[in-house]
Amino acid sequence: MHRMSRHALLSTALACAAFAAQAQSTPEASSAPAPSAAASSEAAPQAPAPNPAAEKALAQRFQALLAAFEGKAALPDAKTFTDDFNKQVNGDQMKQVFNDVHQSVGSCKVAAQMTSPTPYITSYLLQCDKAYVPMDIGIEEKAPYRVHSLLIRPGYWKK
Predict the structure, then answer these.
(1) Do 108 and 69 meet the contact criterion of CB atoms below 8 Å apart?
(2) Tens-of-pLDDT digits for all 159 residues of the chain?
(3) Could you tell me if 20 and 84 are in contact, meaning their C-beta atoms sit under 8 angstroms apart?
């Protein structure tokens, strides 16, 4: 029980960092008036142009975090994360959550990857020994492509 409550607490902190970073990266969304129905029907939202460098960076960031989660590598240093993220969660807290979750669910591998309509955010489904664990990661849209959000959702326990 203690492990899950600590996991839930840090997952909440990681989610808060994600939402804070997302809100700061799109300040015009909160200050701009909502578009009228006529304006929204005239122009569909444009998908961002593909950015191979950002896609590669996102995959690398995720692989580094997964390796740290599995205990196969050290946690990436603070420079890998945005300043806002580092204010919400420090390295020791993240290590503790990774350790607690890993102890709870066992070894994991990627079962599925779901792309998001939001640029530079991807969701993964980890297939672990005891559960399926959803993990979301988001990076900055421009170099150096630091991680601005990381969310480890509660696992779906296997029967």
Answers:
(1) yes
(2) 334 444 444 444 454 444 444 444 444 444 444 444 444 445 556 666 778 888 899 999 999 999 999 999 999 999 999 999 999 999 999 999 999 999 999 999 999 999 777 668 999 999 999 999 999 999 999 999 999 999 999 999 988
(3) yes
Q: Does domain 2-24+52-157 have CATH number 3.10.450?
A: yes
Question: Domain map of the chain by residue range?
Answer: 2-24+52-157
pTM over 0.85: no
Which contacts of 102-106 are long-range, i.e. CB under 8 A and separated by 24 or more positions?
102/69, 102/70, 102/71, 103/3, 104/3, 104/4, 104/7, 104/130, 104/131, 104/155, 105/129, 105/130, 105/131, 105/133, 105/155, 106/130
